[in-house]
Task: inverse folding
């Protein structure tokens, strides 16, 4: 099973500037480590520090072509065969069981969708790479549902809290507490939120 993780340099702009980079890299490390425990991982990024974190853990690195998250994911999916997962790098509560649950609809030929609380998309389970379309942005979960219908395949919305609850703000980080992965939890403890 292939998991694609896009990581954008300069993200997390709603976090305090002094924490953005460190938090983003800690979360990336936690997500990559879990994804590697269930299969192959491709991290698509143009960020040197993100490349270092992901590469040191054993992920395959894919150069970000520019043009946003959709273009990045499409590039990382090139040449992929069979079931593919796409997971954002800001879901540090992720567990192997979450990825296995995300894979179930895809195994049945459906598009699995994990919608964030703001209507964007935190994770996708694709029965095959060519089901993907670059639809990220506001309201993207609805756009992915409509895309599945247009393709004539079923979709399944998954209420997986560890994938739904991303970290965009300081309040999100505070709520996470020690429930994140090792790197993120240690960081939260060190900055004493």
Result:
């Amino acid at each position: 099973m292939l998991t694609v993780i896009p990581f954008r340099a300069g993200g997390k702009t709603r976090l305090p500037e002094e924490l953005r980079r460190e938090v983003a890299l800690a979360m990336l490390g936690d997500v990559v480590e879990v994804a590697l425990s269930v299969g192959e991982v491709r991290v698509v990024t143009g960020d040197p520090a993100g490349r270092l974190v992901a590469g040191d853990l054993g992920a395959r690195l894919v150069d970000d072509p520019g043009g946003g998250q959709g273009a990045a994911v499409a590039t990382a999916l090139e040449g992929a065969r069979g079931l593919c997962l796409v997971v954002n790098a800001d879901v540090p509560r992720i567990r192997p069981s979450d990825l296995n649950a995300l894979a179930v609809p895809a195994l049945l030929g459906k598009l699995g969708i994990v919608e964030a609380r703001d209507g964007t998309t935190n994770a996708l389970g694709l029965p095959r790479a060519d089901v993907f379309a670059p639809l990220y942005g506001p309201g993207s979960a609805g756009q992915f549902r409509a895309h599945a219908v247009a393709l004539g395949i079923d979709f399944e919305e998954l209420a997986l809290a560890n994938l739904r609850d991303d970290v965009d703000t300081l309040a999100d980080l505070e709520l996470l507490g020690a429930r994140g992965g090792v790197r993120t939890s240690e960081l939260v403890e060190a900055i004493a939120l």
